[in-house]
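Input.
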Amino acid sequence: MELTPQIKEKLTLLQEKYEAMGQDMVSYLDGLLYADFLTYWDYIHLDTLLSLQSPKTPFPDEEIFIMYHQITELYFKLSLHECKQIAEHENLTAKFFTERVKRINAYFNALTTSFEVMVNGMEKEQFLKFRMSLLPASGFQSGQYRMIEISATDFTQLLDKSKRKELANANIEEKFEYIYWKAGATELASGKQTLTLKQFINKYATQFLALAKEREHTNFASLYKQLEAKGEDVSSLAEELRKLDLYVNVEWPLSHYKSAVRYLEKDPVDIAATGGTNWQKYLPPRFQKRIFYPFLWTEEQMNEWGKGWVLSVLQTLKNKH
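Output.
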């Protein structure tokens, strides 16, 4: 083989790279010679990935349920990957910020538009049987989703809406006691914390508090205001943040609400969720009024937050009955 100028240049660059690390390039070339060619299935650990579904019952639709939730968590991981790039960027610009939020919006668009795959892909009878083997596990226990929320907004916006003004200047630990999702994970009969919530807090509270402190000045809302104060053009960024607000706080929870209506709605009393959460009050955004960027919305828009979607679902239910 002829050693072209291009090959010689690459060898020189490799030599410089390994010398800078105190390494011998020839040894690495030997390693390259003896190594097998990379395969697609090895690169993405396909066999391992396909072995990660372990149904607890013989009902075939349980595998659909498991796989969709695994896909969901992978999209959440992609979103957190972008969140970290934004928060830790040394010289953040509106352009970089906007591009990364667009990626997150693409992930949530895929999630919200694909939720029907799971909802329509399971027989109600099978779901209502195999779900009893999942107690007290619940999708409520997605730690990654909570981390996305913490990365996206001022921590005060994640409090129960009745406590936001009162605790606006409180420390993170005090605020955490009133984070909105705790109120959603109470036993329907007694009002006590569910086992689902206790498990969740025991596993993730330390991580959540650490992340909330780390993101106090590097959450998306804070970074947006910093760039705006510098005089950067944040118009495109504002549009993408509004989309993110709707995806995370309206479209995604309402996809779950629609699913709950289909599988758990029952006259005269609705079926409880596996985690014992009060899904009728917890999922609809019009009750929670969880809004990441109130400074990007009008009062009228916030007053109507999520209302139209929920009302349309409820109207569909009435028509069925």
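The chain is about 65% helix and 0% strand.
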